[in-house]
Amino acid sequence: MAEVKLFRSWSSSFALRIVWALKLKGVPYDTIFEDLSSKSSLLLQYNPIHKKVPVLVHNGKSIVESLVILEYIEETWKQNPLLPEDPHDRATARFWAQFGDDKVFPPVLDVLRNEGKEQEEGIVKAKESLKYLEEELKGKKFFGGEKIGFADIALGWLAHHENVFEEVTGITLIAEDEFPLLSEWRKTFPDAPVIKENWPPRDKLVTKFQAIREQALVQKLKMAEK
Amino acid sequence: MSGETVELLGHWASPSALRVKWTLKLKEIEYEYVEEDLANKSPLHLEYNPVHKKIPVLVHGGKPLAESLVILEYLDETWKRNPILPDDPYERAQARFWARFVDDKCAPSILSAFTKKGEEKEKAGKEARENLKILESGLGKKQFFGGESIGFVDIAAGWIGLWARMVEEIADVNIIDTETMPLLDAWFRRVLQVPILKECLPPQDRLLEHNKGFYKNLTGGSS
């Protein structure tokens, strides 16, 4: 069997997508954990352009960028497909995956890393985007329909990491009364086989993101003082 | 399924719409083009793309799709003639990587170089050139990113050859450096000469005026 290696960090939600995809398809692989504050020469060799995780190495060739890796995995290992068959449905799944990265993640991160006016703006933008996701879940259990699909995997961080952000900031973005379907999905998705066995430890994430928030706020103060 | 009507909602000066036009042309797909007045978005457009309210939107058999790279993949999967993505999964991953690199890195830095002033403009220009230099590494010595003939990345990146030169002229900042990126520079010229692509290009003098106007509104200055 060809060798599959995954470079990841313990906390990266992007790398987690690849863990899920490989495990859902039953693809055996080796994990190399990276300390992102001190990147290995191997990681830099395999991802010279972006120098980030995740990196998938298959047959000695590296593939980077999590959504690109997901497509590669889907095309290389055909069991348990993550994308539907119909081209329009496939395009829709791709659209929402990209939407998460472009329109949901950045404002959510802004809420984590800011306070005051900038945080308020982040909250507004995040909720605007979340409304579209809520709409997309109408009549569906998962974004993929009856079972987990490409978009669920791409958006999966909303069911865990985002939860942690809410605890750290004290700000609830996905409230049950405002986003009933998303709230439900946030309970169902983490409970699914494979998904539930692979979350990074929550308390460690809380500590990590607390530190990130503090550091970001201190930096903003420093810049304001200049 | 491929027998149903195809509509493209676009704008004549949009590089993203151009990508879709190029692909439709390459695959010989018959379609109806609807020019969107972006200042006054039609109810049709808002209905079809409520999420981004942007063009291009492809409507096939009444079902809309947005985001140019998503549309390109859809077209490739639905119409098999003249494929734009290769067969091999690794090669496909490479193509997707470079297309995303154009959107995530090249385009924003080029836009920054266009809209910023002074030191910030120079910094953005430098970043844009660095990103294009990296893009060149994806091309290497090939004729096109797609190899012997144009493919996904050529279609995704070709617009830069036209738009970047306009940014250079209007904003007085260097984006495409012939000396440091000779292969990419040659590719820009080559790809825009490909007949199918060339005939879809917007009229250049009109585009220049349009972008000059854009520049004036954005920066409050003239070139």
From TrEMBL, chain A:
UniProt-listed InterPro entries: Glutathione-S-Trfase_C-like, Glutathione-S-Trfase_C_sf, Glutathione_S-Trfase, Glutathione_S-Trfase_N, GST_C, GST_C_Tau, Omega/Tau-like, Thioredoxin-like_sf
Cross-referenced Pfam families: GST_C, GST_N
Residue intervals of the GST C-terminal domain: 86-209
One of the record's GO molecular function terms: glutathione transferase activity
Enzyme Commission code: 2.5.1.18
GO annotation, cellular component aspect: cytoplasm
Enzyme's top EC category: transferase
GST N-terminal domain mapped to chain residues: 2-81
Catalytic activity reported: RX + glutathione = an S-substituted glutathione + a halide anion + H(+)
Gene Ontology biological process terms, A to Z: glutathione metabolic process
Protein keywords: Transferase
Family: Belongs to the GST superfamily.
Protein name listed in UniProt: glutathione transferase
Species this protein is from: Rubus argutus
Taxonomic classification: Eukaryota, Viridiplantae, Streptophyta, Embryophyta, Tracheophyta
TrEMBL record, chain B:
GO cellular component terms, A-Z: cytoplasm
CDD domains, per the entry: GST_C_Tau, GST_N_Tau
Enzyme's top EC category: transferase
PROSITE patterns in UniProt: GST_CTER, GST_NTER
Keyword NAD carried by entry: no
Record protein name field: glutathione transferase
EC number(s) given by UniProt: 2.5.1.18
SUPFAM superfamilies found in the cross-reference section: GST C-terminal domain-like, Thioredoxin-like
Stretches assigned to the GST N-terminal domain: 4-83
Chemical reaction(s) catalysed: RX + glutathione = an S-substituted glutathione + a halide anion + H(+)
Keyword Magnesium in record: no
One Gene Ontology term from the biological process aspect of the record: glutathione metabolic process
Pfam families linked: GST_C, GST_N
Organism from which the protein derives: Rubus argutus (Southern blackberry)
Keywords: Transferase
Annotated family: Belongs to the GST superfamily.
Database matches in InterPro entries: Glutathione-S-Trfase_C-like, Glutathione-S-Trfase_C_sf, Glutathione_S-Trfase, Glutathione_S-Trfase_N, GST_C, GST_C_Tau, Omega/Tau-like, Thioredoxin-like_sf
Domain GST C-terminal: 88-214
GO molecular function: glutathione transferase activity
